[in-house]
Amino acid sequence: MEDNTARTYGNHIVQYVPEYSFCAGCTSCEVVCTLVHDGLVSPSYNRIFVDRDNRSMIHTVLSCQQCSDHPCFDKCPKKGQAMKIDENNIVWIDEEYCVGCGLCAKACVFTPSRINMVRSADKSKRKAKKCDMCRTRPEGPACVQWCPVRCLGTSENSVATPLGPQEKPMPKEAK
Amino acid sequence: MENRLYGYAGKIARINLTDKTVTHIPITKYVPKYIGGRSVANRIFWEEVKPGTKAFDPDNKLIYMTGPTTATGIPTGGRTVFTGISPNSYPEQYCWSGIGGWFGAELKFAGYDGFILEGKASEPTYIYIEDDRIEFLSAAPLWGMLVHPTQKKLEEIHGRGVKSIVIGPAGENLMRNASITTSNDNVAAKSGFGAVFGSKNLKAITVRGTGAIYPADIPKVFELRLKMGEPYMRPSPIIHEQTHGMDQNTIPVEGGWLRGQVACSHGCNQHCCRLMMNMKSAFSDERINQVEKCVGIFAYGFQQDCSWTPIMSFETEKNHFLPCKMLSCEMPEIDVSDPYVKELFDKVPGDTVNYWKPDFDKGSVMMDMCNEYGIDKWDVIVWYMTWFSMAKKEGLLDELDFGMEADVENEEFVKYFLDMITYRKGKYGPIFAEGMARAIRTLGKEKFGDTIYKGRFSQVIPGKRLDIPVSLETAWGHSYHWQGRGFEGSIPKPGWLATSLELMTSTRDCQTVEHHHQKYEEYLKFKDDPCHSPVLVEGVVMNQNKGELKDSVTSCEWQSPDLFWPDMEAEAFTAATGIHMTQQELDEAAERSRLLFRAILIRNFGRDREMEVNAIFPTMQYPDPWGETVSWEDWNDLVDLYYNRRGWDRKTGWPTRETYEKYGLSDVADELEALGKLP
Ligand code: SF4
Ligand code: SF4
Ligand code: SF4
Fold first, then answer.
1. How many whole angstroms separate alpha carbon B446 and alpha carbon B452?
2. Domain A13-157 class, CATH top level
3. Which residue in chain A has the smallest CA separation from B237?
4. What is the per-residue pLDDT across A39-78, written as a single tens digit (0 to 9) for each?
5. A20 CA distance to ligand 3 middle (Å)
6. Mind giving me the DSSP string for B57-98?
7. Which residue among A5, B100, B611, B619 is least crowded, i.e. fewest CB within 10 A of its CB?
8. Contacts of A26 in chain B (CB under 8 A)
9. Which fold does the domain B493-674 belong to in CATH?
10. Do B240 and A51 touch (CB under 8 A)?
C-alpha cells in the first residue's frame, strides 16, 4: 500500500468513529450519491464506497480524499477540460469532455481507487465518476445529508473524531 | 428520451441446473399485473409446477424475485423473496421465504429481476452471475464449508464486492430447517429452502452487477426516504450494554457486551438489526460478531415467555410506532394526551415457562452454530430446545439414548445436538434432521408431542398452571408464534383468533410477514365477540394483503403496514416504476396474488376447508394466559365470515369463479373447473 502519510488533503468526506456513530451498512450514501448526480442507482456510478465486511459486519466507508497535489488530475490527458479544479481546490469531472480512458482512476493513490468507472460497450458512455463534494448542491454533500445514522461528515466541518483514511472502525474489545 | 423501463431490471433468468442452460423471460410478461416479487413468483409457480411434485424433486422450482423498488433507493426495497415447495412445511406445500441483504440489488444491477432455479445439477455446483454471463461452476472446493467461510472463499475467487447467497452443511445434508444466507446474517430460513438448494446440488449463487436501475420519480424517492419509518437521522453509536434480554429473561452480562445497529437490506433508511460484537464462537477461540433479531434474545435465557403490550398490535393515530424501533431502542415518546394511553401500554406479562437459565456464552454458541451450519434459528430456539427442556422434565427422555445427557443448559449438549442434526449422525440425527414435526411423529406423537408440560404458569392469573404440550407445534409443521400460547403467547383472544385465521389460510408461520396490526378503535368493536365480527375479518384481510405487498413491491415487516399511511406501498410502487397505482388498485393486485396462492394450494396440495380447519383448530385448544380457548362453533362461524369476505365457498373453502374473474384470473378458474376444484 502506498505511503500517504506526507500527503495533505482538502475538504473531504469522513466516516466518524463508531463510538460516535456506527455505520449501519445500509448503503444509502452510495445510493443518494448516484441519485443526485446521475438520476439512477448503480455500483458503477457511486463516488463513495461502502467496503463491506461480511464476517465482522463492520463496514468502512471510502471516498476521495481530495489530495492537495491531485495526482489523478495530473494524469488526465484532457485536464482542464474533462478534469477541472474549482476555487476550493476540488477536482471535478466535466463529463461532457471525459473520454473514459480510466487514467485518473489508475493514478489515484488509494487502493481501491476512489474514482469509479462506468464501463460500457458504447464508448460515449464510458465516464469517470469522482467525488466532487456535491459542489453545486446548495445543501452540500448528499451522502452526509442522507446518512440515516449521521456517521459521515466533512473533514473541515467534522462534529466528531473521524477515522483515518485507511483505518478500520474496529471497536476495542469489551472484555 | 430512451424507451426506458423504470424500477424493474427487465428480465427473469430461467436457470436449468440439469442442462446447464439459461434463458430469459421479459419481466413485462408478468408486470405490472403481478407487481413483482412474490406475486410474480406465484404466477410462475402456478404456470409451471405440476401437482404431485415434492420438495426435493428436480421438478420443484425455487423462484427468487426482487421487487420494483429494489435498488431504487426507496427504503425497505432491498427485501426479496424465495418461493417453492417447502420441505419444512408439514405436509410439504408451496411456501415463501423473505431475505434482505445486498444480493437482490446486485442481481438487478446485473440485469435480472429474479431467477427460476430448476432441475438438479449432476455434481456440487455454484452459479456465478456477472451481468449477461451466467456460469455453472464446480462447488467441489466449497462443499462441506460453513456459511461464512463459503462467503469468504467466493470473495477470494471472484473479488471483493461480489454478493452471494449460500447454504451451509445443513442445506447440503437436506436438513429440513436449512436456511439460505446472505450478507449481515440475513437468511431465508422458515421454509427450509436451504435444503432445496442442497437437493439441487447447489451450494451458492454469486453475483456481480455493473448496470443501473432507474427510479421514475427521484424527488419522490427522497420524500419517501424522509417519511417511511421516520428515520432516526441521529448518530447511532456502539453501546456498551451491561445486560441482555428483556423482562424476566434479562440477564446481567459480566464485563458487558457491545451492541451496534445494522440495516438488513440495500438502501434502507433504518438499522433494525442488532450486531452483537466480540461474542463467543462455537468453532474457535476468536471472538465473533453476529446479528440478532427478536427471537435470538431467547437463546441466551428462556424462563418466561415474551410479554405483550396492546400497542404492539392495536394502535391509535397518537400512539403508533414501527416494530423496528424496538430492536434499535428508539421508540418515540408516549403521547399521553391519547385517551387510550393507559390501555395501550398496559403490559401483559408472558407465562413463566422455565426452559433454561441464563447463559450468555451458551446462547452465543447456539446462534453461531445456526449461522454457520445454516439452520433456521427460530425452530432451534422455540421448538427443538424447548422440547428437550419440557420432555426431559416430564421424564420422556429417559428411554432415548442420545449418546450424551440431553441437557439444554449444557453448552456441550447444544453443540452436540446441532452437530448431530446437521450431519445426520447416530440414531437420532437423521430423525431430527427431518424437522420437529416429522421427528415427533417418528418417535410417536401422542407421547413425545402431546404430553402436557406441567411447568407453564400464567402471570395474568398468578399461580394458575396452564396446559401446554411438550412439542410447541401449531399448524403446517411450524411452531407457535404470537398465537395465545407457546412462543409470544400473551396476546389475548381477539388477537390470537386473528393470527390463527392468518395461519390457517397460509402454509407456514406467517407472523413474520403478517404480524397482526389493527386500529385500537376497531379492536374495541370486536373484543367482546371476536368470532362474529366483520371488523376483525377486515383486519385479517388487510394484514394478509399487506403481507403479499411486502414481498411484492417490496417492503418489510418492520415498516408496513403503517395504519395511518395506508397508501405508502402504492406511493413507493409509483415512484419506482412511474406506473400510477392507487392504494385500491394495489390492494386488488394483492388480492390477485393471494388468490393465486390459494389456487396453487387447492390444485397442487388438496387444500380445502376441512383440511385447514382441522390443522388449526387443535392448536387453539390449549389455554391462553387467561385460560381461554375457542369453541368449534365459534371458530367455524369466524371461518364462515372470512370465506364470505374473500368470495370463497363456505363449504369447500374454494374461491368461486366469480371471485377469480373479478381479479382477472378466469384462466385459473377454467383450469380448476376442469379438475373439479371450483365450487
Ligand atoms: S481521486 Fe484519489 S488521487 Fe485523486 S484526489 Fe481523490 S483520493 Fe486523491
Ligand atoms: S460528497 Fe457528493 S459526490 Fe462526494 S461522495 Fe458524497 S454524495 Fe457523492
Ligand atoms: S449511509 Fe451512513 S450508515 Fe449507511 S452505509 Fe453509508 S455511511 Fe454507513
1. 10
2. alpha beta
3. A21
4. 999 999 999 999 999 889 999 999 999 999 999 999 999 9
5. 13
6. STT--EEEE--TTTTTT-TTTT-EEEEEEESSSSS-EEEEEE
7. A5
8. 262-263, 265-271
9. 1.10.599
10. no
